[in-house]
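JOB MANIFEST
job_type = single_chain_structure
chain_count = 1
residues = 286
[input]
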Amino acid sequence: MTTETQTRGAGYVRVSTDRQETDRQIAAIRAYAAANDINLTRIIEEDGGAGQGKGISGRSKAVKGGRPDLALSYYAALASENFGTLERSGYADLLRSVVSGEITVVIFYALDRFSRDTIELLLLELILRKYGVAIIALNSGAACRTDTAAGKFSYRLMAALAEMECDQSSERTSATLRNMVSRGEKVGRPPVGWRAILDSSGHSTGQFEHHPEEWKLVEEAINMSDLGASYAEIGAAIGKHPSGIKRYLDSAKWIPPAGPARPAAPELDLSSGAPATEGKPDPTGE
């Protein structure tokens, strides 16, 4: 039975890949709400959208792209409560419920299920506090609430840890690839838009460069994505199936493993503008 004084809450769940399920997250949120007399009005399950699957990243494309100007624009839109620009429909739906006064608490299974970006998580806490809404992060049983001093401190600490863990995961992947290259092991095909640099014998040097034709498609896909285009719209523009568009967007984030050092570029003769080695034997033999 619901009373007027009972806390009204909404749960939010997300997975990163289509192979994952949200059942455990939903069960934990329901159990916490029942045990703490919270009227759980709804559970918002994030979806990647039509033709894009259930899995969706916890970081905005604007933030992941490595361009500070786009990241700042994204944060500014969020701070001004322009929720129509958000990439995740469930995210926008949740924030509209906050602004409308429909809920007084938001429950996450774990903070990184909502976002892995520290600045975004801090902005979220400020926006919700403006409307008197608390955040509850369960984090495998150790619930953290932002309506207490200790809980607010824990939330901000977990926000920083969520981003650090994401960054460290990328670093470990890159380090593994670099070690494989240094041992002469094959690291597989590079992402779309990249190609291996070959030596004069046609063997891989362990280094990579942009594939001119494919990289044009990668850049077009990224530009359209930054403007809010769907996978279907991007696919139609570059002539690829929507299911493969994520590969093109992810290519820009790939950090090539460092192979053997390439020959240094020839120094310029500043008096003539010509390479200082011009007319001398080429040490590379090419």
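[summary]
The radius of gyration is 24 Å.
Strands lie at 7-13, 38-45, 105-108, 134-137, 144-145, 194-198, 204-210, 268-269, 274-275.
exit_status = 0
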